[in-house]
Input
Amino acid sequence: MNILAYIFYLLITYIITFKVGLIFYRNGKVYILQLLQGNEHLSGSINRLLLIGYYLLNLGYAALMISTWKTVHTIEEVLVTVFSMTGKIMLTLAVIHFINMTVIYLLSKQRKYFNHHKT
Output
């Protein structure tokens, strides 16, 4: 039963990881571009690096979570295990996302402050 759980879990994690990653990548461009004062080349490079880091972090975390599983024997245990592990990954992603957004907000606020007081 564990093999079934692993496959189901990895499929869900893969879909969530790549779908959310693409959404972050597309929508994050604007914020990074603004933060870097319109430098499109640097913004694009940083955005791609953030996407790769996001994928590596999330997929690495998902792989580590599999090592913590106990043996499951029933479909009910498969579902409970898969959903609880998926929930942990989603909560972790949400926390990381809010930390990233806070950092971007603070950096942009700091940049506005320094630009305003520069003159």
About this structure: The radius of gyration is 19 Å. The chain has a mean pLDDT of 87. The longest helix spans residues 75-118. Residues 17 and 58 are 7 Å apart (CA to CA).
